[in-house]
Specification:
Blueprint lengths: L11 H14 L4 E3 L7 H5 L6 H5 L4 H9 L21 H10 L8 H12 L12 H12 L6 H7 L2 E5 L2 E2 L5 H9 L5 E2 L2 E2 L1 H4 L6 H12 L6 H17 L4 E4 L11 H13 L4 H22 L2 E4 L3 E2 L4 H7 L7 E2 L9 H7 L7 E3 L6 H10 L5 E3 L9 H15 L17 H21 L5 H20 L5
Parallel strand pairs: 1-2, 2-4, 3-5, 6-7, 7-10, 10-11
Antiparallel strand pairs: 8-9
């Protein structure tokens, strides 16, 4: 199914250059410093249950498309919170998927799933309503083989390091099991404290109590809260963590006075906060996290510009992360001024900024990263880590900030088997983009080879994993 020149320019000159560039980097190891793969997969190394549980049910890219076409989430195997009925038969779920796979034509999900089926599972024909169940049986038979257990697949994929995303009050139990097992695969945690820094989180107070319990610090005040977070960061770093991650709605970052922060935290403990309290507190905590990163060296990642759980009916029925997170307009120049003036010149600090607002690429992010030593631009993210999305980011960012103020490609996925095909897509797109610059006599082949390797491997290694062995 897959053409060897896919994603390359049909112009023969550009295509030939792209092919040469790609061949040099296509087999480099995969650096995956940010993602959402469940560490339990590698702790227990058990067979994946079935093709639907592996490829459909965990992937909101898939079922959000179905829901947009009027297909109930229950039919996709998504479990309602109220315990009402849902489709449990994996074969029926897969049949629904195969019957409607045509919906993904031309989309990133269509690209990844098609490549995944062929490159990972050896499927040699296009998935459709006629062959869907045969392909299901083919994949199911693969999944019971030892080579398709999570740990062997990790090695087959050529992953050098894979970071999970773990909440502030996580005990990192599964990471401890992995390390004690003696397996050599490098799985590390990432510290994501949104569940305790976002005062509007539905389970905020419960999460604070859990954090108190696992740190042995009674969180009755702001200073104790900060002390508990610092203690957890120490635990995460001892388990190999290289980064923190912050999913904030807006990139508003501003330090409060001790008195202001204490007062808001007290109101939060009493359950009397306002939305403005929450906004100010999150902005303040981003400054605290930057301060901590200067102390412990963890790379700070921020993912602003997303209105989570836009569909309230779906959120109430199924919970978060069900495909209803929608991009927002953002502003970085003013909102990042305080954090960059305070820490952006500090050699101990690295801030990686992602965005869903493409209008900010050339206007704000490229000039900011092109000046402040601490700032790097994260890859095209989520809706935009696609064929055209990656191209648009390269066109709008590299001209001002250059390649070396980026961090390469990050897959940011829950779908473990999609990792190699997502990296392959990015490597092909970058090879093609740089080939266009060579053909236009903007850079030469020596530059292109160096830049391509940087985007595929070196930048992620340098920014995130330079001290990881």
């Amino acid at each position: 199914m897959l053409n060897p020149n896919r994603f390359f320019n049909p112009n023969p000159e550009v295509r030939n250059i792209a092919s040469e560039l790609y061949k040099e980097i296509k087999d480099l190891p995969l650096i995956c410093p940010h993602g959402h793969v469940d560490p339990r997969l590698f702790a227990y190394n058990k067979p994946f249950p079935d093709p639907s549980a592996l490829l459909i049910i965990p992937d909101h890219y898939v079922f959000r498309m179905f829901y947009s076409q009027g297909i109930p989430l229950e039919q996709c195997g998504i479990i309602p919170l109220d315990g009402s009925s849902y489709e449990k038969d994996p074969r029926r779920i897969w049949k629904l998927f195969a019957d409607n796979f045509y919906l993904f034509a031309g989309t990133p999900s269509g690209i990844w799933i098609t490549a995944e089926l062929e490159q990972v599972f050896g499927v040699k024909e296009k998935l459709d309503a006629q062959n869907g169940m045969d392909i299901y049986d083919h994949i199911r038979n693969k999944l019971v083989q030892e080579d398709f257990l999570p740990r062997p697949l990790f090695e087959t994929f050529g992953i050098e390091i894979l970071a999970t995303t773990d909440f502030a009050a996580d005990t990192l139990e599964y990471h401890k099991i992995i390390q004690k097992s003696g397996w050599k695969g490098k799985i590390i945690p990432s510290f994501r404290p949104d569940d305790v820094t976002n005062l509007l989180h539905p389970a905020w107070r419960k999460n604070i109590d859990t954090l108190s319990e696992i740190t042995n610090i009674s969180i009755t005040s702001m200073p104790r809260f900060i002390k508990a977070l610092e203690k957890q960061r120490t635990l995460f770093k001892s388990m190999g963590a290289v980064a923190t991650d912050h999913g904030i709605e807006m990139p508003f970052i501003h330090a409060l006075s001790d008195m202001e922060a204490d007062a808001i935290f007290e109101r939060a403990l009493k359950g009397t906060i306002t939305r403005n309290d929450a906004r100010l507190f999150t902005g303040h905590m981003m400054m605290e996290m930057a301060r901590m990163s200067c102390d412990d060296g963890l790379v700070m990642q921020i993912h602003p510009g997303c209105l989570r759980n836009h569909n309230e009916i779906i959120f109430e029925k199924f919970g978060p992360d069900k495909g209803a997170d929608i991009p927002l307009k953002t502003e970085f120049t003013r909102n990042l001024k305080e954090i960059l003036n305070t820490y952006g010149n500090n050699p101990s600090f690295t801030l990686v900024v992602f965005t869903l607002d493409e209008t900010t690429y050339s206007r704000e992010l490229a000039p900011l990263a092109g000046h402040y030593p601490a700032m790097r631009i994260g890859p095209a993210w989520w809706f935009h880590d696609s064929l055209q999305g990656i191209i648009r980011q390269r066109e709008r960012v590299i001209e001002t900030a250059g390649v070396y103020n980026l961090v390469g490609f990050i897959d940011d996925t829950r779908a473990f088997p999609s990792i190699p095909v997502r990296h392959d897509l990015a490597r092909r797109i970058d090879s093609n983009f740089l080939a266009g610059l060579v053909a236009g006599h903007i850079i030469d082949m020596e530059d292109a080879h160096r830049m391509n390797r940087a985007l595929a491997y070196d930048l992620s290694k340098q920014v995130y994993c330079k001290d990881v062995t």
